[in-house]
Amino acid sequence: MSIIEAIILGMIQGATEFLPISSSGHLVLLPEIFGWGAADLTLIGIVHLGTLVAILIYFWRDLWQILTAVLTGIRRRDLMGTTDARMGWLIVIGSIPAVVAGLLLQDFFERVFAAPQAAAFFLLVTAVLLVIGEKMLSGVKSAGQMNWKDAGIIGVFQSLALFPGLSRSGSTIVGGLLRGLDRPTATRFSFLLGIPAFLGAGLLSIKDIVTAPVMPYTTAVYVAGFLSAAVVGYVCIYFLLRWVRSHSLYIFAVYCALLGGGYLLYSFIL
To answer: Among 8, 68, 126, 180, which lies 20 to 30 A Cα-Cα from 38?
Structure first.
């Protein structure tokens, strides 16, 4: 893989991780369509680390307030005393389902990740989820009204995104909408909930790079993918948080249906 291809993959990751159109589905399908060869899981983890940096930069004030509130709550033995402290623990609770599923089914998900047809199919599932979320949109709950059950169920939706083609942001936003959250709150929590997942994927990739005797790509390829994912990811966070205030998710559902259905049709014909 060339540096230009790594930059393009990083841009794809940065855009599709936060827009509800599945980064994993694009990272599987587009190299297949354009004949780049499948990106190795280490490179995919590195571009996920780029999106983590984008989130940390965009939400650094929120994250600092959450961290200080959690630590203050622990010191005062009042874990849920403030909205920020509650948000910190809700992120922890929401992260548990994906961690458990990833550890128990890692080999299974790696096999599925290698199947472009599976990614295309799950893009269609993403489209259906987004339509269901919009059809049931009636939520008015804010972040201060969220509870542990909301976080746990949204976390289960996040674990579904271990399947390539199932959008992490899309599934968690829909999970939030089904739990009665308003669209901006569901979207913001979706982004914050992604931080532990991106951190885990990135740290595992760094471990693989450090311990591997030979890496399939040069260091420049990994750096290029990381930087492009971070820059594009930041822009897309800004865009989606403003989009959901007055627009629906239907346009993303249509896109997922066209890409997934188009690839399946293409693969069956050829």
So the answer is: 126
